[in-house]
From TrEMBL:
This is Argininosuccinate lyase. Keywords: Amino-acid biosynthesis, Arginine biosynthesis, Cytoplasm, Lyase. NCBIfam families: argH (TIGR00838). Its EC number is 4.3.2.1. GO terms for cellular component: cytosol. It comes from the Bacteria. It comes from Calorimonas adulescens. Belongs to the lyase 1 family. Argininosuccinate lyase subfamily.
Length: 464
């Protein structure tokens, strides 16, 4: 049955019915719709609209329907316009007319906004817990490979030696920010729209604060028009997903490069690779490619909803039904990708020797040599020029910097002495970094300790 048939004489066109219907996707809000309805029932009881018996009947039946749904016993009939119509009709089948009282002082506009925000809150908790697991996997790798040195890159050109732990901790910082962003969003969006009616509020004395308490909301909305037409909480969440995807895409891209024969820095576990149907030798890092590939669709989800919202006058407009698929898709995608990435990261094999060898070629210690000269009093800009000349000489001779004799070096500057070899040693190069946040063992250890403490606290926040 339609929730709005009374005013109409003519039948709805079948195609229009199909076009208008959201049941295929908003069925995902089934549980939230039941929970929201339970909250509504309590508020109606308090307002004197439902009697004690009626309240009990409503709550019992809604709980029953909830359980049946969980056990897959509810047949989702596509003839319903949306999940709200379905839930109401399931309740009507059980308790008759009292079911229709539930919509007193409630519109689907405040109902759907409430369902959506409850859904988003629940999913943010799941994503946050997943991000913590991912952060733990990254931290484990940083600890496991603490001593491995590899080239750090800028412009994808070998730049300076870094610790592999420093590399992993760089991603730790990114995903920590993502986690914090979700957490922050959760704080901000915890506001109940229910009780806003269609747009103007309700004639019935619904105790919204009490209802919010029943439904586990921290706060209630203060403007009914904004409340029914607000989808910022979806947008913020999709944005958070998009940014997390961007970070996951970057590490994926990097690991895809690292497992090529050209780099040969890591191996991806077979469980997360696939073969080629034609080339028997291939082992492709599909897991990482898909994480990278799915990033685009989450950006699309964000664009799609931003665009849906941009031209809408107050208050509710049916356009807003288009909030669901992008929100669901972004959440589903980010959850799947975090899980996969965590598994890939915890199972990679690191080829530390190749990483170190790569530091030997490409003059990664050139900056250290320039710093050495600067420490001896040569202005850095000039030291940079001198080392540039040394590099050109090395390239002609096919030598590495540390393969030059002191006499050869003295040709470029008489400041060079024996201690230059200590300064340009790859291992020393790392530890000569003194600034907080740098790649020296000491600073990386410091950062890891701080982040391990942080993890200990946050780990208990979102247990699911
Ligand atoms: N299916 C609708 C949605 O997702 C529910 C709200 C409908 N409200 C209305 N006034 N037609 O947005």
């Amino acid at each position: 049955m339609k929730l709005w048939g009374g005013r109409f004489i003519k039948e709805e066109d079948r195609l229009m019915e199909e076009f208008n219907s959201s049941i295929n996707f908003d069925i995902r809000l089934f549980k939230e719709d039941i929970e929201g309805s339970i909250g509504q029932a309590y508020a109606l009881k308090k307002a004197g609209i439902l009697g004690e018996d009626e309240l009990n009947k409503v709550i019992c039946s809604l709980n029953e329907i909830y359980k049946e749904f969980e056990f897959g016993k509810i047949k989702v009939d596509n003839s319903y316009e949306d999940v709200h119509s379905l839930v109401e009709s399931l309740l009507y089948e059980r308790i008759g007319d009292t079911a229709y009282k539930l919509h007193t002082g409630r519109s689907r506009n405040d109902q759907v906004a409430t369902d959506m925000v409850m859904y988003v809150k629940k999913e943010i908790r799941v994503i946050s817990a997943q991000l913590i697991s991912l952060l733990e996997a990254i931290m484990d790798n940083a600890r496991k490979y603490e001593d491995i040195i590899l080239p750090g890159y800028t412009h994808l050109q070998r730049a300076q030696p870094i610790l592999l732990a420093h590399y992993f901790m760089a991603y730790f910082e990114m995903f920590k920010r993502d986690y914090m962003r979700f957490k922050d969003t959760l704080e901000r969006i915890d506001i109940m729209p229910l009780g806003s009616g269609a747009l103007a509020g309700s004639t019935f004395p619904l105790d919204r604060e009490y209802e919010a308490e029943v439904l586990g909301f921290k706060d209630i909305s203060l403007n009914s028009m904004d409340a029914v037409s607000n989808r910022d909480f979806c947008l913020e969440t999709i944005f958070n997903c998009a940014l997390t995807m961007m970070h996951m895409s970057r590490i994926s891209e990097e690991l895809v490069l690292w497992c090529t024969k050209e780099f040969n820095f890591i191996e991806i576990d077979e469980a997360y690779s696939t073969g080629s149907s034609m080339m028997p030798q291939k082992k492709n890092p599909d897991s990482l490619e898909l994480v990278r590939g799915k990033t685009g669709r989450v950006y699309g989800d964000l664009m799609s909803l931003l665009t849906t919202m941009k031209g809408l006058p107050l208050a509710y407009n049916k356009d807003m039904q288009e909030d669901k698929e992008p929100t669901f898709d972004a959440v589903d995608t980010v959850k799947m990708c975090i899980s996969i990435l965590e598994r890939v990261i915890s199972t990679i094999k690191v080829n530390g020797e190749n990483m170190f060898m790569a530091c030997k070629e490409g003059y990664l210690n050139a900056t250290d040599m320039a710093d050495y000269l600067a420490e001896k009093g040569i202005p850095f800009r000039m030291a940079h020029g001198i080392v540039g000349n040394v590099i050109r000489y090395c390239e002609e001779k096919g030598k590495a910097l540390d393969e030059l004799s002191l006499e050869e070096l003295k040709e470029f500057s008489d400041v060079f002495s024996d201690d230059v070899y200590i300064a340009i040693d790859i291992g020393n190069s790392i530890n000569r970094k003194l600034t907080i946040g740098s790649t020296s063992r000491e600073m990386v250890e410091e950062a890891m300790k701080i982040e391990e403490e942080w993890l200990k606290v946050e780990r208990n926040m979102f247990i699911v």
